[in-house]
Amino acid sequence: MLKQAKEELQMLETQYPNRFGHLKMELKSFILLLESQQYSNNIPSCSTATTQASTNKKRKKGGSLTHEVIIEEISKCQKVEGNFKGRNRIDLVLEKAQSCLRKIQELKSSLCGS
Fold it and tell me: What DSSP assignment string belongs to 69-110?
């Protein structure tokens, strides 16, 4: 799944360098999270609370990602809420990554169908 996510990100960055910034950022954060899971499976995570002001960092000039934005996105992915209590954090990450990949595939099919 990590390989497929990287391929989809590369395709988006190549074909649409100035579009779909939020989707690219979300995919980059999932890739980073999946990579960190591979290397630190036994280290407990701590998620930070996101603030409304921190969302403004996402709109950085040029669409570049800051370290804080990446950490914020990872923290969002690591939150365990509501009906997800008791589930394995890795399962949640995989579900989010699959959802993101589905969005990209739907986008690709809609663009090809246009």
Answer: HHHHHHHHHH---GGGTTS-HHHHHHHHHHHHHHHHHHHHHH
Closest CA to 71 of 88, 51, 87, 91: 51
Domain containing residue 16: 2-113
Q: How far apart are CA 106 and CA 99, in angstroms?
A: 10
Residue 111 is encoded by which pair of tokens? 């663009």
For the chain, what is the domain count?
1
pTM of the model: 0.40
- The whole-number average pLDDT for the span 49-72 is 51
Residue-wise pLDDT tens digits, 17-56: 888 888 888 888 888 887 877 766 545 544 444 444 444 4
